[in-house]
Amino acid sequence: MRRAQLGSPRIWGYGLRVTETPMHAPAQRANTFFGWYIVGAMMLILATTGGLAFYNLSVLLDAFVAERRFPVAAASGATAAFFISSGLAGMVAGRLLDRIDARIVIVTSAVLSSLALSATGLVENLWQLYAFHIIFGLAYGGCGLVPAMTILARWFDRKRALALSIAMTGLSLGGAVITPLTAWAIRQVGLAGAGPWLGATFFLGVVPATLLLLYPSPEAKGLTPDGEVQATNRSGVVARAGTPYHEASRSRFFIAVSLAYVFTMAAQVGALAHLFRLATTRNGPEIAAIGVAVLALASIIGRLSGGWILLKVRSRSYTLAWMVFQAAALVALAITHDPVLMLVAIALLGLPVGNLLMMQPLLLAEAFGTRDYGRIYATGQLISVLGVAGGPLIFGLLYDASGGYLIPYLVAGMLGCGGAAILIASGPTPRPPVRE
């Protein structure tokens, strides 16, 4: 069987919406579908980016407040700046993923992220705090969820939910393993001593796996989604099924899902960004470090079980259930002070965290297909980043105003319920057009 070489145009030149394929497409191998190796590579990449960025922002916030004496609200605003810049970078990445090889986008962004993390200890002033978070966010946006979900959506169709759940387990593994180690390193040697090690870890966790294992699409390796029979149009080229970007982005379902995730992610990310500090102020840094690991482990359980459950239930109903569950967990965290009960509440929060993050890309892929998926998902991410960025800022302002975390977490529970109400108004999930 002929195999595409690493430097061939079919791989590095990939990026068109319709991809040329030989007249006789190569037969699928009888052994493991290569898409599962893509899932494994993505798990490692997301573990690294999740452990050093998504989950790690809570640790960095606490460290900047403790070491540099920044106000909580100011540090929360910097966290918000990270998410806004990552959302904008995700929009650019979504367009680039349809034009150039995804590995170029990921590797370039990973190198910049590594350099930004290495400079963590140089932050001394407020403007430097914001500059650090903005630069780190811009770099992270090109090697985070947008390229990961876009590539996985291309490789899988029928088994997409399972593939996403397994790959995104890497986020939780990063939070369970890498983030506690980051917190420990910062406690031992401070931000200045830990920064270069964080940067090196980011580089080693993303770049080698990307270069060695990632292919931007199954067609780039002479394969098809799920390893099934190739579908071609009249010109004899592979056509991706899906709704055009401009039609999808104006649909009721897209707007409702995106707005629902503004509220949902404001509640979730705000809670996560302040979780380490919440646990530290109530029960000390040891319980806080354990709490981060418990959150990540619960997220793993929720996400892996979700991949199998989604084979039997509707994605929209499943998402609604977890939105309500998350709101209840946030209220529990608001009123809990006992260390054991706090860890239980954190575990309850981890279950929806593990599911809700993967449900937005899955809902959009099911509704609109893969034709313009990179741009569609990136746009949805940019809208929902209003909540992602606003959540930590709202928490910080409410904390400074109330002097504690009771009010911020109660408000987060209300925001979560608002997200569920908006998703109910989205109507039934549309289905993308069939391949031409």
TrEMBL record:
<feature type="transmembrane region" description="Helical">
    <location>
        <begin position="253"/>
        <end position="275"/>
    </location>
</feature>
<feature type="transmembrane region" description="Helical">
    <location>
        <begin position="405"/>
        <end position="425"/>
    </location>
</feature>
<keyword id="KW-0472">Membrane</keyword>
<feature type="transmembrane region" description="Helical">
    <location>
        <begin position="75"/>
        <end position="97"/>
    </location>
</feature>
<dbReference type="GO" id="GO:0022857">
    <property type="term" value="F:transmembrane transporter activity"/>
</dbReference>
<feature type="transmembrane region" description="Helical">
    <location>
        <begin position="318"/>
        <end position="335"/>
    </location>
</feature>
<feature type="transmembrane region" description="Helical">
    <location>
        <begin position="33"/>
        <end position="55"/>
    </location>
</feature>
<dbReference type="InterPro" id="IPR011701">
    <property type="entry name" value="MFS"/>
</dbReference>
<keyword id="KW-0812">Transmembrane</keyword>
<keyword id="KW-1133">Transmembrane helix</keyword>
<feature type="transmembrane region" description="Helical">
    <location>
        <begin position="341"/>
        <end position="364"/>
    </location>
</feature>
<protein>
    <submittedName>
        <fullName>MFS transporter</fullName>
    </submittedName>
</protein>
<dbReference type="InterPro" id="IPR020846">
    <property type="entry name" value="MFS_dom"/>
</dbReference>
<feature type="transmembrane region" description="Helical">
    <location>
        <begin position="287"/>
        <end position="311"/>
    </location>
</feature>
<dbReference type="InterPro" id="IPR050327">
    <property type="entry name" value="Proton-linked_MCT"/>
</dbReference>
<feature type="domain" description="Major facilitator superfamily (MFS) profile">
    <location>
        <begin position="28"/>
        <end position="431"/>
    </location>
</feature>
<dbReference type="Pfam" id="PF07690">
    <property type="entry name" value="MFS_1"/>
</dbReference>
<feature type="transmembrane region" description="Helical">
    <location>
        <begin position="197"/>
        <end position="215"/>
    </location>
</feature>
<feature type="transmembrane region" description="Helical">
    <location>
        <begin position="161"/>
        <end position="185"/>
    </location>
</feature>
<dbReference type="InterPro" id="IPR036259">
    <property type="entry name" value="MFS_trans_sf"/>
</dbReference>
<feature type="transmembrane region" description="Helical">
    <location>
        <begin position="104"/>
        <end position="123"/>
    </location>
</feature>
<feature type="transmembrane region" description="Helical">
    <location>
        <begin position="376"/>
        <end position="399"/>
    </location>
</feature>
<feature type="transmembrane region" description="Helical">
    <location>
        <begin position="129"/>
        <end position="149"/>
    </location>
</feature>
